[in-house]
Design a protein that fits this description.
It is a single chain. By secondary structure, the protein is of the alpha+beta class. The protein is built from two helices and seven strands; from the N terminus they run H-E-E-E-H-E-E-E-E. Strand 6 and strand 7 (about 155-159) form a beta hairpin. The protein has a single domain (about 5-159), classed as Phage minor tail protein U (Alpha-Beta Plaits), CATH 3.30.70. The longest helix is centred in the middle third of the chain and has 21 residues, at about 85-105. Strands 1, 2, 3, 4, 5, 6 and 7 form a seven-stranded mixed beta sheet that branches. The chain has helices spanning about 5-20, 85-105; strands at about 35, 45-55, 65-80, 120-125, 130, 135-150, 155-159. Helix 1 (about 5-20) packs across helix 2.
Amino acid sequence: MSVAVITRITSTIQSRLKPVARHSIAGIGKVGIVRTSRHVDKDDAIVVQKAIERPIPALDRPGNPPGKAYEVTFNINCFIETSESETEFSELCEETAAEIVRRISVVDYPTWHTCGGLAINARFDGPKDLPTDTGKKGGITVPLIVQYRVSENDPSIVR
């Protein structure tokens, strides 16, 4: 059975984050990387959440079958547990976001943005606060926006 391109891209992102989990950043609780599109608890330190996916008609390609292009946003949520001051917490969030960017983009440099040839392009959006259920800041979210193209009749074929 063929694996969908978007599933392989998600797995690539997860595998690039494994060194962050192995070399745990101070303040990150339980080490683990989870992929989900559902609401999660803070049981895992890093959660790769597929957020928004939309078609990009301008990047479609003609053919038989045609290639259909999509853009998907992955929110890389980093839950940080610390009893430090607000300043130290903010610095830890900033360092965690920087480490996420380094780990994803250093593999296969300078072609990291293709996710091993599966994507057209990838780019980071600015980090955002990750709120908890109580409204307090619980960590940091690093959005990664990936553009990819697949065969119209087989989402496991890169076009």
